[in-house]
Amino acid sequence: xxxxxxxxxxxxxxxxxxxxxxxxxxxxxxxxxxxxxxxxxxxxxxxxxxxxxxxxxxxxxxxxxxxxxxxxxxxxxxxxxxxxxxxxxxxxxxxxxxxxxxxxxxxxxxxxxxxxxxxxxxxxxxxxxxxxxxxxxxxx
Length: 140
Fold this sequence. Notes:
Blueprint (H helix, E strand, L loop, with lengths): L1 E7 L4 E6 L2 H9 L13 E3 L9 H26 L1 E4 L2 H9 L8 E3 L3 H9 L21
């Protein structure tokens, strides 16, 4: 399959797919290619740069984009949340009970502790390792 950028005699541009170059030539020659904007069958190929991407290049772009987004999430957490380390469960419970002022925190909690917090109505969201910022104590 090949995708062409097309232009009609009224200067409307659009795209269409054909099985090959000869397919476009045949259909256009028989008046079967029609502008979706005005219905003109006077259609020609427009200048277009080829879109060439290997699956490896595409995968690399996706991985790069995901890494960028993960880094933005980590930066947001570092800049807007207080790191409380292993005191996370105690701090979260104290804020939920009104014993301490509420603030945005992050830290460590075991899966069992996270589940208990959640079951007790304490809002908690475990972060996947890929989104968790490096704790300040581990930064060089």
